[in-house]
Amino acid sequence: MKKVLLVLPSYIASDEALDFAVRKAKEEGSALVVLYLIAAGAADDVFDTFSDIGFIGDRPSSQVSEAIMKEYRQRGYEELGRVQIRTMEEGVAFEPLMEAGEPVEKVLSTIDGMGITTAVLVKRKERAILRYFQRSYADVVAEKAPCEVIVFTGGQGLIKEDKKDVKEVDRGRA
Description:
Layout: E1 3-9, H1 15-28, E2 31-39, H2 42-52, H3 62-90, E3 94-101, H4 103-114, E4 118-124, H5 137-144, E5 148-154, E6 167-168
Parallel strand pairs: 1-2, 1-4, 2-3, 4-5, 5-6
């Protein structure tokens, strides 16, 4: 059976990616595997932000770290529940996953381990200057994945990416 993977990072959501993945799974008679991904260091990013604004000190306790990760997991359960309702409405088989760790590693292992035929990824809109210094997890996965990869750019609307090896979805400006 074919499987479509929808990767939902904890830091950005895309209803358009969800709609696309559900529609593709329904059209192909595929199961929809949804991976809610909590990036490694997510709690550290929150600490840094709170420290920068003076809300907490430089070394937060382990209780704060646990509370932040608990909140991420709770958001993940809510997002997976929302997707499950949508798949039930459309009559699509649904398989939820929640993982924490390095995004590229987790997505590629899920693709390989579950026999995914199409992966739908969501990434942040990149600032122009950062494109020269860093790559998103979606760009790396698109290069290495053995399946079709479709990348949605969330945040400030969808934009068309200039990559020849990735099917792009342009719903915003060109």
